[in-house]
Each structure stands twice: as structure tokens, then as C-alpha cells.
Amino acid sequence: MPEETFVIAGAGLAGAKAAETLREEGFTGRLLLIGDEIERPYERPPLSKGFLLDKEPREKAHVHEADWYDKHDVELRVGASVAAVDRDAHEVRLSTREPIRYTRLLLATGASPRRLDVPGSKLQGIHYLRTMADSAALKQAIAHGGRRVVVAGAGWIGLETAAAARAHGNDVTMIEPEPAPLHTAMGPELGGMFGDLHREHGVDLRLDQGVAGFWGAGQVSAVVTSGGAEVPADVVIVGIGVRPNTGLAEEAGLEVSDGVLVDQSLRTSDPDIFAAGDVANAYNPLLGRRVRVEHWANALNGGPAAARAMLGQDVVYDQIPYFFSDQYDLGMEMSGVASPGEYDEVVYRGDPGAREFVAFWLSGGRVVAGMNVNVWDVTGDVQALIRSGTRVDTGRLADPGVPLASLA
User: Pick from 291, 322, 150: which is nearest to 229 by CA?
Assistant: First the structure.
């Protein structure tokens, strides 16, 4: 019987954790982990947090020590990618033209930053943040301070990079077309709090306007807003979201819609191909619908879940979306989905004015999301409330004297 070969396309956190889990679960066949960056697998949160702030070394972001892959007989191919999938032949072709037959294939191809297609968008000094190389280049641009930095987009990446730019001593202007930062992620109530936080730290926050173009002679020197204002800029950071890297799946004829469609076991429309991480649009039985999650925890948990499913184990991937952020003196963790339309009420426990509280988003009396701000060790209880689907008494929910565990 020929040796089984598992191929993982994408050497980010999801792919690396899948490889680790396959070996831990006893897979002894050939295992290839293929990534187009020259860097060995790393986690992405430090790129906009500790590494960008120059508080953490590059090495801390890596998923494994450099010799882990050889020790665990994982063929790590960096600087290469899976260029094509022949499902009938059970074969992938690498960008190096090398063909490899597979028994099971995991797509962990991640996502790419959305680009601004406006006049001047090719000028030097315009940064996107996705890779370690992106973060290193951005850090070099802002680390000495005294620069005029314009951030396009007030989502998580925009807010975190703005905070880093201010920490390095730069002037920062943030441009956002929505009425509040994070409007699509958590609505106006808490988005407004993040806006206030950044204003207090000297950020010029311009809402309800987008970027219409850039000026400059080779190097960017100004950003033109949709309202016609010209904002001087030495450095521009664009953080307007990402697109899942579905090209490989589409060309292979897999079902794709805002990501690679997978079931609750992270299996695609082909029974021998799985997908995990940013690229996977997975059916979540807890939420009762599909959801594509772009956060670190999804890669951390999704890679191992896909690995177990590849081994034939009974897997139900029903993780509650989770995210964390650090900006200035504010640290937070968020669980669940709180986009506008997903909730009808926000309840606070603690002191929002002092930015020490837990916020709960409710729909029909049930907690659908929760965020703890400068309050710790409550994520498990918040997630238990979401998972229970229990109707809660909002008075008790808001009362810090009532244990959260008693409400689930």
C-alpha cells in the first residue's frame, strides 16, 4: 500500500498548527507544508502589535522553533506555493512546477489586503500590512517619529497601526467612511468609544469620508479625501479589510462564495480537500449559518480541527469567533458576532467611562457577543453565555455582583 501524503497549501498559523496536530495525532505519512513567503510560519497579531511597536523580537512571532519541522519530519517548503490542483489525479503542482500526489489536501491560503484603486495608489510610501516583511517595512517608516502618518480605515488594523504610529511619536490622521470606527464589527456604541480613545491620544479622526486619491512625485505627499480635503502625508497605511485567497480553489472547481465553502468538519465540496483559517467560509452549527472569520483564534483552532477531520475523526468545528486587541492603555477581548443587524441591545457591566467594563450585545434577550475592556479572566464565562443561548435578565447581567457563570 503506497504511503499516504498530506499536503498543506499555506504555511501560516492555520497550516502550521494543522501540521503539528497531524503528527500529534499519529499521522506517519509524508507531510508537506508549502508557503510562498521565505519566512517560516508565524502568527500575525505581532505584526500590528508587539513587533510593530518594537517591543517584541521577530522570532517571538514564529509558530515553531526553526528545527521543529525537521524533527517532526515535516517538509516545509518556503518561497513556493501550490499553483494548481488536479482533483481527478489527486495531484498538486507547485509554483516550481513540481508535481506532488496527495491523499488529503488542506487549503490554508489565507487572505490578501484589499487595495485602494484610486489615483496615485502606486506612489511610494503607501503601506499595506499582511506579512512580516510588510510590518518590518512599516516599522522602519514610522519608528523614528516625526512623520505625518495617514491611516485609511478605522478597523482593527487601522486602529492598531495608528496607536503604534502615535507611540513612535508621529502625527496621525485617520480617515474612515463609516460613522464610527469598527462600525461594521461592533456597531456605533462601542465603535464610538474607540474613536474617543484615539482622539484622546492625539489622532485626527475624520469620519464619514473615504480616500479619493493620493498626491506626490514618486513619493506620497498628501491624501485626498472624498470630501476634497488634502491631508499632508509622509507615510500612508491602508487597512480596509482583506479578501480570501480563493483563486486556487476556484480553478480547481471547488464551491466558493466569500471564501471556500466548507461544512462543519471543514471539508470542501471535494471529500479529500479541506480548508481552514481566513480562506474558509464554514458552516457553524452553533450560529446556525456560515461564517468566515479572519481572526487569529480561528487559525489557531481551525488548523487542528481540519487536521483531525483529515484523519477521519468526527469533527464539529463550532468555535465562537474570538479577537483581542491592545491600543495605548486599553486591552480588550471580544467573543461572538456583534455587527449591526445582529443585535438589538447593548448592556454594560462595570464602568464604561473608566474603560473598565464588559459589554454584551443581545438579540431577543440572548447574548450574542461580549467584549471585556481592561477586565480579565471572563472570556470563558462570556463564551458560555453565548453558547447557552439562554435569555438573560439584563439587570443581573449588568450587576458586577452577580457571577457571570450563574447566568449561563
Answer: 150
What would the pLDDT profile of 317-353 be if each residue is shown by its tens digit?
Answer: 999 999 999 999 999 999 999 988 889 999 999 999 9
CB-CB neighbours of 386 under 10 Å:
23
The helix or strand, by DSSP H or E, that contains position 252, with its residue range, turns out to be none
Residues 33 and 126 in one domain: no
The continuous run of DSSP H or E covering 385 comes out as helix 379-388
pLDDT average, residue stretch 156-176: 98
Contact between 135 and 48 under an 8 Å Cβ cutoff? The reply is: yes
> For the chain, what is the domain count?
3
How much of the chain, in percent, has pLDDT values that exceed 70? 100
Question: How much is the CA Rg of the chain, to the nearest whole Å?
Answer: 22
Q: Do residue 93 and residue 42 come from a single domain?
A: yes
Q: What SS3 state is found at 150?
A: strand
Q: Are residues 179 and 280 in the same domain?
A: no
Residue 321 covered by a domain = no
β-partners of residue 345 are: 362
Helix segments in 208-360, DSSP class H: 247-251, 296-310
- pLDDT recorded at residue 160: 98
CATH code of residue 184: 3.50.50.60
Q: Are residues 184 and 300 in the same domain?
A: no
One-letter amino acid at 69 equals: Y
Three-state DSSP class for residue 201: coil
Strand bridging mode 148-152 / 171-176: parallel
Cβ proximity of 41 and 141 under 8 Å: no
- Return the SS3 of 399: coil
Closest CA to 407 of 356, 349, 345: 349
Contact 285, 387 (CB under 8 A): no
One domain, residues 333 and 373: yes
H or E segment to which residue 327 belongs? strand 322-327
Same domain assignment for residues 124 and 229? yes
- Which H or E element spans position 221? strand 219-225
pLDDT of residue 1: 52
pLDDT confidence bin for 3, thresholds 50/70/90: confident
Give the chain's largest Cα–Cα span: 69
Note down the domain range covering 54. 5-112+243-310
